[in-house]
Amino acid sequence: MSIIVPVAVISGLGLFFGIGLAYASKVFEVKADERVEKIKELLPGANCGACGYTGCDGFAEAIVNEGVPSNKCPVSSKEILSAISDVMGLEEGDVSQMVARVICQGTWTNADMKYDYDGIHDCHAANQLAGGMSQCYYGCIGLGSCQHACPFGAIEMVNGLAHIIPEKCKGCGICVAECPKGIIKMVPVLTGYTVLCANHEKGGIAKKNCKVSCIGCMKCQKVCPNDAIMVKEFLAEIDFEKCVNCGKCAEVCPQSTIHDAMHERFPYEPRPKEAKA
Amino acid sequence: MKELFVILIGAMFIENFVLSKFLGICPFLGVSQKTSTALGMSGAVVFVMTLSSAATYLVNDLLLKPNDLEYLQTIAFILVIAALVQFVEIVLKKLVPPLYKALGIYLPLITTNCAVLGSALINVDPERNYSLLEAIFFGFSAGLGFTIALILFSGIRERLETSDIPESFKGMPIALIAASLVSVAFVGFAGLVIQ
Q1: How far is the alpha carbon of B19 from chain A, nearest alpha carbon, in Å?
Q2: Is A275 a residue whose pLDDT tops 50?
Q3: Which of A186, A214, B20, B182 could form a disulfide with A98 if both were Cys (CB 3.0 to 4.6 A apart)?
Q4: Residue A176 and residue A75 share a domain
Q5: Dist CA A107 CA B80 (whole Å)
C-alpha cells in the first residue's frame, strides 16, 4: 500500500502544475499578430543576423511592430521582399538587393610590403602592427579574416587580396563587419563601375604605395556626364543612384582604379597605357 | 547576516557550481563563446535558480518531508522546476516584455539544467539544514558563482579565438583544456576558511 502515497503525490503535483500552466497560458495570453507568422514563413530562415535583429523571428516582429523596411534582409530575393510588402499592405517601393564588394586592388604585386609578417594569420592581429604589412595603410591586409567569416564561401584570396565572387555573395554583410580596414562595401547588386580604392593619401604618396591607387586627379569627375562622381579627400566616389554605367570614368582613369566589377573578371586587367600624343 | 555572507562566499567560490561541483557544464561550454551571450545565460540562471530554490524548498518542506518521501526529491524537483520556468516565461511575456526579451531563448534552455536541479537538491540536504531565506540566498549565490565561471571562461575563449593553436587542438579540445585549468585554479579556494 505504501506505493500509493508517492504515486499520488507525484501525479497530484503533475496535475496541479498542468492545470496551473494551462490556466496561466489562457490568463496571460499574448495575442500574436498573424502577419508576423506569414512573414516568418517568407523569410529565408537562415537566422544569419545580417539585418541586425535576433534571427528571422526577431526581424519579422520588427517589420510588423516597428515598421522596419523589409529590404534590411539582404539575403531575400526581390520576389520575397515584394511578397513581404504585400503582407504588410505596403507599396513595393524600391527594395534592392545588395552585394558586398572589396574596394581595393592592392595585391602583393600592386602594393609593396612594409615588413615581413610572421604572426597570427588574422587581419585584426596584423592590423595592430602599424596597420598591417602593406605599404598602403588603407588597403587589404590579405590574411583572409573575411574569408573565414563568410558563411557562404563567397570570398577567395588571390595574391594577397580578398575577392568576393558575385554569384556566391548573398549580401549578408558579415564580411563588412569583419574587415578591420573597412574596405568591403555593400553596393546595389546591379552596380557596375566602382572605384576600387580606399586610399585618402595625396596623389604622389598613394601612387608610390600602390600601383593602382586613386590619386584624386579628378579626371573621372570631369568626364562623368551625370555628375555621379565626386572626389573627396583625394579619393573618387561614385554615387550609385546617379551612375548609369557608361564607363567613361574607367576609360580616363590613369591608374586603372575604376573597373566594371560586375562584368569584368578578377583579377582586373590593367588597361594598356595609351601612347602620349 | 554572517551566515548569509558565509553562504555567499561559499557558493560563489569554494563550491563553485561549474568549476568545483561540475554542474552545468553544458551551458558552460555551449554558450561561452561570446561574453554577451554568456551574460544573457548567466542572468537567466541567476533568476531561475533563485526562484526554483524557493519553490523546491517549499515543496520539500510541505509535501515531501511530512510524507517521508525524501527519496522522490529528484523527480519532484524536475517537475517543479520545469513547470516553474514555463510559468515564469508565460508571465514575463505578458507582464514584463523587456525582461522576457533580455532572457530570450535562455529561459527554456535551462528548464532541465543540472545546475538548477543541483542547487535545489543541495538546498534540502539535511546536513545543511537551511532555512527558507538561506535556501533562496544559496540559490542566488550559486547563480552568481555560475556567472563568474561563465564570464571568466568566455573571456578566455574570446582570446583563444585569435591565438595560434595547433590544428588538432582548435575548437573544443583547447576549450576543455582551458576549462580544466580554470577549474584547478578554483581548487585554491577550497582552503578558504570563513569564520
Answers
A1: 31
A2: no
A3: A186
A4: no
A5: 63
Separation CA A200–CA A209 (nearest Å): 12
**B57-83: pLDDT as tens digits:** 999 999 888 888 888 899 999 999 999
Give pLDDT, residue A92: 52
pLDDT value for A273: 53
Say if the Cβ atoms of A17 and B80 lie within 8 Å: yes
Which alpha helices (DSSP H) does chain B contain, by range? 2-9, 25-30, 35-59, 73-95, 97-103, 106-109, 114-123, 132-161, 172-187
Q: How many domains, chain A?
A: 2
Residue B138 has pLDDT above 50, yes or no: yes
| Structural domain includes residue A93 | no
In-domain check, residue A12: no
- Tell me the average pLDDT across A112-136: 87
Residues A77 and A158 in one domain: no
Please write the tens of the pLDDT for every residue from A240-269: 888 888 888 888 888 888 888 777 766 666
Are B90 and A28 an interchain contact pair (Cβ–Cβ within 8 Å)? yes
A165 and A193 assigned to the same domain: yes
- In this structure, what are the phi and psi dihedrals at residue A258, rounded to the nearest 5 degrees? -95, 130
Chain A residues lying within 8 Å of B75, measured CB to CB? 10
Phi, psi (degrees; rounded to nearest 5) at A192 = -100, -85
In a domain, A70, yes or no: yes
ipTM score: 0.78
Top residue of B79, B95, B100, B170 to mutate, by most chain A CBs within 10 Å, is: B79
Q: Please give the backbone phi and psi of residue A104, each rounded to the nearest 5 degrees, phi first.
A: -160, 145
Residues A124, A231 within the same domain? yes
Both A147 and A181 in one domain: the answer is yes
| Residue A267 included in any domain | no
Distance from CA of B100 to the nearest CA of A (A): 13
The CATH number that applies at residue A52 is 1.10.15.40
* Cβ partners under 8 Å of residue A70, min gap 6: A39, A63, A76, A81, A84, A85, A88, A95
Looking at the structure, tell me whether residues A195 and A254 fall in a common domain. yes
CB within 8 Å: B80 and A9: no
d(CA B15, CA A177): 41
pLDDT in the model for residue B50? 93
Same domain membership, residue A169 and residue A41: no
Domain of residue A56, residue span? 34-88
